[in-house]
Design a protein that fits this description.
Length: 317
């Protein structure tokens, strides 16, 4: 893969100091400090990521990054290469899960800003992404956590419930782990559009809640901050999407570990342990006595209405 730094040095027209930044699990990130004091971020996009189904195609990611910048929520794109971007360096604090749990209002405001911006060039469905990952696991005989296949009927039940009265799709990030949120003063900005696409806004919020370990009360606060009002049905929608985030990204880590072993080793990150952790959180919520009530709330069912039993899938077919 050609190194884009020579092109970037020519673009900058001055000496650059290059500092690798850890944290990205898929792509290479470099901070660029210019001799005149300016600072930029270089994001080098590894085509193996999208080829393995772990991100959208590079041209779509670049286009969506530009549109997120147009919305005022993503960093400005200063220079484009075929497989890399020079981005505005956001002077702020990269958030962690603890910080995201303390900022439901600013995080919800950042989502509203992105969702009100230009539509992205592609669509995204967490259910179709789960299907893609299952196919990859079957095709390449990749290991999934024990008991994973038994939970597929519950995922299908969630999809049926959410499909009953879906909201209009909006441009979503779809992968809002805390490190993709940067606090700049009083506002939160959003970076890394590797899995972006037009989607149900409730998935965006559910994904945040999953990645930052929100409890049900905090998830309700996030949903309320996003809407500006209490809405039980929307909150239930967010909580079901929290479960789908954990179920689906379980397989993201399984596929990454199985298909990009060399990159995984370089990242010094335990992908299999992360897959197991996400699955355990999904199981916790699926086995919670309140799960059926969430499905009923999304469907608009009456209190006490019957809830279909779960059945078990034994293998990928």
């Amino acid at each position: 893969m050609p190194d884009p730094l020579a092109d970037v040095r020519a673009w900058a027209g001055q000496p650059l100091t290059e500092t690798p930044i850890k944290g990205g699990l898929s792509h290479r990130i470099v901070r660029l400090d210019a001799a005149d004091g300016r600072r930029w971020l270089l994001r080098v996009l590894d085509p193996r990521v999208s080829e393995a189904g772990l991100g959208i195609p590079i041209e779509q990611e670049i286009a969506n990054t530009v549109r997120a910048a147009d919305a005022g929520i993503g960093p400005r794109v200063l220079h484009r290469l075929p497989d890399a971007l020079v981005l505005e360096y956001l002077e702020g604090v990269t958030l962690d899960a603890h910080a995201v749990r303390g900022l439901p209002g600013p995080v919800a405001a950042a989502c509203r800003r992105l969702h009100a911006g230009p539509r992205f060039v592609n669509d995204f469905s967490v259910f179709r992404k789960l299907d893609e990952f299952l196919t990859l696991c079957r095709t390449h005989e990749l290991a999934v956590p024990d008991g994973y296949l038994d939970r597929l009927p519950a995922a299908a039940e969630i999809e049926r419930a959410l499909a009953a009265d879906p909201p209009p799709t909006v441009p979503c990030h779809n992968d809002l782990l805390p490190e993709n949120l940067i606090r700049c003063g009083d506002e939160v900005r959003i970076v890394d559009y590797q899995l972006s696409g037009n989607n149900d806004p409730a998935f965006e919020l559910g994904d945040i809640a999953a990645e930052a370990d929100y409890d049900p009360d905090l998830t309700t606060r996030l949903a309320r901050a996003y809407l500006g009002a209490e809405d039980r049905r929307f909150t239930a929608r967010v909580r079901l999407n929290l479960i789908m985030s954990n179920l689906t990204w379980t397989l993201w880590f399984a596929v990454h570990h199985g298909l990009l072993r060399e990159q995984a080793a370089d990242a010094d990150f335990d992908y299999r342990a992360e897959a197991a952790d996400k699955f355990s959180q999904a199981v916790r919520d699926l086995d919670d006595p309140g799960f059926g009530r969430l499905v009923d709330d999304v469907r608009g069912a009456r209190p006490g209405s019957s809830h279909p039993p779960h059945h078990h899938a034994r293998r990928l077919e």
